[in-house]
Write a structure and sequence with these properties.
- The chain is built from 5 helices and 4 strands; from the N terminus they run E-H-H-E-E-H-H-E-H.
- The protein has 162 residues and is an alpha+beta fold.
- The protein has one domain: Alpha-Beta Plaits (2-Layer Sandwich).
- It starts with a strand and ends in a 33-residue tail after the last helix.
Length: 162
Amino acid sequence: MHVAQMNVGTALYDLDDERMAGFINNLDRVNALAEATPGFVWRLQSEQGNATDIKTTDDPLFIVNMTVWETVQALFDYVYQSEHRSVMVHRRQWFRKPEGQYAVLWWIEEGALPTVEQGLARLDHLARHGPTAYAFTFKAVFPAGAAEPIDLRPEPYCVGWA
């Protein structure tokens, strides 16, 4: 099994607004970092090489990000213990503070690729039911086939919304 993840955000400004430059100018670097990270499998991207222009709702400021990783630990290391974190610390400058769930993880068969619709459904399930084996978080990871979650303790690494 591999782990899929989706995170979503609503930009504060149009993506071509100069106030979004810090985010937009780091996309290629952060995407390349992900692809070079051990355990990386796949990321959602358009023909332009990123996912910011893939529209999933009528809101042009709502963007999605999806990736697949060999393990939850590989994803955790990328998100919280790589240079990705230095960009994440600035997210409040570019995105509205989420009012609910904005990230979800779930298991997929090795070789499978998730769809945006599947990711949004998992995110909705997480918001309605809390962490389960169907849709979980770093705080409550359900190892494949496990009934009880483990806590990867992401709090010391979480930055950007305080």
